[in-house]
Structure formats: C-alpha cells, structure tokens
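Ticket opened by: R.M.
Priority: normal
Category: complex prediction / small molecule

The reporter submitted a protein together with fe (ii) ion and asked that the result be attached to this ticket for the collaborator who will pick it up next week. Submitted input follows.
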Amino acid sequence: MLSLEELESATLDVTNIDDLDVDVLNEILNKHDYGIVKGLINPDEIKHAKNLLFEQFLVENDSPATGESPNRIQDNFQKLSIGGGELREKDLSKCVRTFYNPIFAKDIYGLRNAFRQAAMVRNLVTGFRKDFALDTVQDGFWTASRIHHYPTGGGHMEGHIDDYVPVIVGQYGVNSYFQPLIVMSKKGEGEDCDYKKGGGYFENNGGRIYYDAFLELGSIIIYNTKIFHGVEEIDPHLPFRQSCLNGRFSGLVTMYRDLS
Ligand SMILES: [Fe+2]
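Result attached by the on-call engineer:
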C-alpha cells in the first residue's frame, strides 16, 4: 500500500517548468521508481480536452490496429487496437483506442500546453534539452503525443516492462528512461469519476498502485519503464460498446523514432 506520506514526499508542485528542480526529481525517481509533478497542467485543461473529445468523436474514424503508414500517426489519427497481436512485434494483450495528436498537428483537443509540459518533464529527467524533439522531428526523434482511451467493459493493456529503452540508451547514453503520463481520468465512486474498477497501475513493493484513484487531473506521473506496469480491465462488469467513449483516458508523450 502506498502511504500518504510517501506520496507527498514523491510529489513536486510547480507552476512553471523552469522552477522544476530536476536534481530533486531525479532523486525521487531513483528512490521510488516513480514521481509526481503537479501544477504544470490545470485540471480544467483536461476537462476541456475531454469535452472536445466527446464532441468530435466518430466511431467510424477507428482505424485498424495495424497497417497504418508511419507518417499517418504524425498527424491527428484515431485507431482501435484489440487483441494479443500475434502478427505484431509486441505480443501484449490490449484493448485501447489511441488518438494521436502530435504537438505539430492541429490542436483539436486543446492539449498543446499539456503535452508540451509533459514532454519537457520527459526531456529533463532523461537528460535532454528541455525542448528536444518537441515541436519538430529532431535527430530522428519526435514526440508521439496522444490520448489513450481504455473503453468501459474491458479496456486494458497487459502488464509489461517497456523494451523501447535501449534505443534511447544506445543513441544518447542516457541511463534510464522515465515515461511521464498525464492523468486524465479519476477512478472511484464519485460523480466526477470515469470508472470504478481496474485502471492504470504500476507495481511497487509487490503491490499495484492505481494512480488515477488518488491523483488530480493534469498531474504528471513519471515512472521507470523498467518496473512492471499496465492497465487492468476497466469496469468489466459493464458492456463494451465500440461506439461509446466512456472509460479511462491518459495522455502520453513517448519519444518515437521517425520512420516516415
Ligand atoms: Fe509501457
């Protein structure tokens, strides 16, 4: 179980990225394998983005799980990935809808600031310049900013450890790779909650920490991708409907290799 004390000691509250003490954050990450930065993204930005998502959502825009060209995801692009992916490189069971929304594409969800803040945190904790690969493709890398939607009725991502790390380590010699995630949903019973069961987690001291249950919208949680993490099935007691956008959301700013 995660204690409130530990949570507080792992949290930094800053309203400007330039006030973020990277040394302190790195100490936190090395100690706990995760850390939390709040204050950079206003919860209202996330609520607004979700409203825009619901307004614009069209189920017929769901592209298949595989087969898109590499440059397709460098623009606004929606896909639904289901299955264990026997034909894919990574054999992870999943049910997740992805809304790719690169920082250099049209800002249709009003998330530009949120993605920039999270990507800057990523750059700082991994030892890159603050603005590396943010607004453009740079040195063969770009920021695949995107929203993940795990639908009510079983949306999930099998637990795993990321294997993307060696690419970054190999090219830049950075020691570790920390993935920031923007909290976009609350877990719980309240009216402001998006789901009750399951959710994004990482394992810490043998237990699962479901961070949506205790973090505010817009908080950035950074975790070491070498620790086991995943998304446990979202509200499996409710029916799955492809046309329904209910469920859990999160924001990601992973650095991708430019394959276009
Ligand atoms: Fe992962």
